[in-house]
Design a protein that fits this description.
The longest helix is centred in the C-terminal third of the chain and has 17 residues, at 302-318. This protein is an alpha/beta fold. It starts with a strand and ends with a strand. It is 28% helix and 31% strand. The protein folds into three domains: 4-65, PUA domain (Archaeosine Trna-guanine Transglycosylase, Chain: A, domain 4); 74-178, RNA methyltransferase domain (HRMD) like (Transcription Regulator spoIIAA, 2-Layer Sandwich); 200-386, Vaccinia Virus protein VP39 (Rossmann fold, 3-Layer(aba) Sandwich), CATH 3.40.50.150. The strands form four sheets. The protein has a seven-stranded mixed beta sheet with strand order 16-15-14-17-18-20-19, with helices on both faces. A six-stranded mixed beta sheet has the order 2-6-5-4-1-3. The chain has a five-stranded mixed beta sheet with strand order 7-8-9-10-11. It is built from ten helices and 20 strands.
């Protein structure tokens, strides 16, 4: 069985420029078709390091360590996990739910680890990483001493790796719902069956930002479990939590009640239709949070996605009260930062409003976006203020 992958100069160049992936098209000599860790070298014999090997994936190799002689075992994973933990120093002072490992952003490609109080939820996104599962779980227990570790491997990405989509308890116990806190508000995460690993942790700081300026009548579009709504409720006299899913809004109502907020009103409706109707009725809101799902699932869908983003932002701008604040975001990786701001500029021009750009937002420190690895960044956000 070969444990060496030979790659082209183009593939080696990606590593030299700081990107950890080498694609199948850059393989000159492939290892045996068994996922795991392999040594990578160029045709001239120069050794480049060690990588996760996924025989069925277009992303064939993911860089782990440039030292070809280091032993990648549970102790190696433990060292890397401790470095990632140090990178998050201070996050636990204002949140009990946050990301511990952000894959390539932490130099641990295809691995996601999220903390919810004392429980950990993990995702193994490649076949090469799956082969290391035992060592990784052992290292997580030593570094974090969790009460339980749950694998949320029910992600479509694993199909491309030839892996099954499962939800599996790996160690200890993980509750169906977990109460967590962020910036003074509480909510219930759903690690077994909620979106992502149980909640949207990547908008944590942005929720707090719009919460700090919330006042009057507020609107949370695409509310899901009401994470923005409960922050808005701290300063607003009324919050409408708008979502197309009645079950999601039931959880939003639970979260509002958990914080003692009786002025969060759930509304089951399509956001596009509701916003158009609100504009026709000349409704006004002093604070709006607009955090839609990823409209652009691929490059091909980007033009239609931009039209969708522009539409909801245009409607939100038109119902924003004078002096009011709108936080708007996109989690579509295929929509770049410049395109996002261009879309907002176009929407503002068509809205007939004077809107000031007060701040631009990205991901929190526990979701590091690494320059040179665009796949590590996907959140774009902006705070707008209506000047008329």
């Amino acid at each position: 069985m070969s444990e060496v992958a030979v790659v082209s100069g183009r593939g080696a160049g990606r590593w030299q420029r700081g990107h950890p992936w080498i694609f199948k098209s850059d393989l000159i000599d492939a290892p045996a078709p068994v996922p795991g860790i392999v040594t990578v070298r160029e045709r001239n014999g120069r050794v480049l390091g060690q990588a996760l090997w996924s025989p069925l994936s277009e992303i064939a190799l993911r860089l782990l360590d440039r030292n070809p002689d280091v032993r990648i075992d549970a102790a190696w994973w433990e060292r890397k996990l401790r470095v990632a933990l140090d990178r998050r120093d201070g996050v636990d002072r204002h949140a009990t739910a946050y990301r511990l490992v952000h894959g390539e952003g932490d130099g641990l490609p295809s691995l996601v680890v999220d903390r919810y109080a004392r429980s950990l939820v993990v995702q193994f996104m490649s076949a090469g990483l799956e082969a290391c599962r035992g060592d990784i779980v052992d290292a997580l227990e030593r570094v974090h001493a969790p009460t339980g570790i749950l694998a949320r491997n029910d992600v479509a990405l694993r199909r491309r790796e030839g892996l099954s989509e499962t939800v599996e308890l790996l160690r200890g116990e993980v509750p169906r719902t977990i109460e967590v806190e962020e910036h003074g508000v509480r909510y219930l995460a759903a690690p077994w069956d909620g979106q992502k690993t149980g909640a949207f942790l990547d908008q944590r700081e942005n929720r707090a930002a719009i919460g700090h300026v919330s006042c009057g009548r507020a609107l949370d579009c695409f509310a899901y479990h009401g994470s923005f709504a409960i922050h808005l409720a701290r300063g607003a006299r009324e919050v409408i939590a708008l979502d197309s899913s009645a079950p999601a809004l039931e959880r939003a109502q639970e979260n509002a009640t958990l914080n003692g907020f009786a002025h969060v009103v759930p509304v089951v409706a399509d956001a596009f239709e509701w916003l158009r109707e609100a504009e026709r009725n000349k409704e006004k809101f002093d604070t709006i949070a607009l955090d839609p799902p990823a409209f652009a699932k691929s490059k091909a869908s980007l033009p239609a996605a931009i039209r969708g983003y522009k539409e909801v932002n245009l409607r939100a701008m038109r119902i924003l009260a004078s002096g009011g604040h709108l936080f708007t975001a996109s989690c579509s990786f295929h929509l770049g930062k410049a395109q996002f701001l261009d879309m907002l500029q176009d929407a503002a021009a068509d809205s007939g409003r004077r809107l000031a750009l007060r701040a631009i937002y990205g991901q929190p420190v526990d979701h590091p976006e690494v320059l040179g690895i665009p796949e590590t960044g996907y959140i774009k956000g902006a705070m707008l203020e209506a000047l008329d």
